[in-house]
Design brief:
This protein has eight helices and ten strands. The protein is α/β, with parallel strands linked by helices. Helix 2 links the parallel strand 1 and strand 2. The longest helix has 12 residues, at about 65-75. The chain is globular and about 45 Å long.
């Protein structure tokens, strides 16, 4: 899952834009930003924050600097435990041309101490857009952990996984805009599903406008994977 390979797969699949949201960290966003620039692919930068409720949420930003500031905020709220690569896998920080410069020592598989509401507020303070990740999943989703979606303006949109039955879950979005993402954890899953919208540019403001108008279209679910 090197940045250059992610970008190459996305371009080959005909994607116009992508977002990188590694778990609890945006330290690899500078690398993918450079790869995307060289390939002429638009990109947003963020991280998948696992909140204190053990709910996965997506914080997306226009710049790597904003995403890295959010990372620092999340890191300060993580347990001070060292990652076990044999259990959770390696956590490399890389350059755009795939050199490993460091192994992240913090364990990024665990929840931080910040609530959904606190994470939403910090994301927006930094200029980001906040999305409830894979609401259809039986673990680490708003529905699995809370039994419902917060409807107090916490989220700008919700995401469906690539296997979610949209005939069921569109109603459970409770009126929020819906996206569908590949949530790729390996190269073969890049761009297997997607979302579409008429946008002049791929920015946080444009995305917020699309979400406010409920103007997204999601690709069909994958029934085989």
């Amino acid at each position: 899952m090197s940045p250059s390979e992610i970008v190459a797969r996305a371009k080959a699949a005909g994607m116009d834009a992508i977002a990188l949201t590694d778990h609890q960290s945006a330290r690899n966003t500078p690398a993918i930003a450079e790869c995307a620039r060289r390939a002429g692919l638009q990109c947003l930068y963020g991280l998948e924050v696992c909140t204190a409720e053990e709910v996965h949420t997506l914080a997306l930003f226009d710049t790597t600097e904003q995403a890295l500031a959010m990372t620092d905020w999340v890191y300060a709220a993580l347990p001070k435990r060292v990652n076990d690569p044999d259990t959770f896998g390696d956590q490399p920080v890389v350059t755009w041309d795939d050199d490993i410069v460091e192994m992240e020592w913090r364990i990024l598989a665990m929840a931080c101490r910040k609530t959904i509401a606190e994470t939403s507020a910090e994301c927006r303070r930094l200029g980001g857009v906040y999305i409830a990740a894979h609401i259809d999943r039986s673990a680490f989703s708003c529905y699995s952990q809370l039994g419902a979606l917060p409807l107090d303006g916490t989220f700008d949109a919700v995401e469906l996984s690539r296997t979610a039955d949209e005939t069921v879950w569109l109603e459970k979005a409770c009126g929020l805009a819906v996206t569908r993402s590949s949530d790729a954890h390996n190269l073969d899953d890049v761009a297997r599903v997607w979302s579409q919208a008429d946008m002049k540019e791929f920015t946080v403001d444009a995305l917020k406008d699309v979400f406010a108008r409920r103007a997204t279209t999601i690709s069909p679910r994958l029934t085989r994977f």
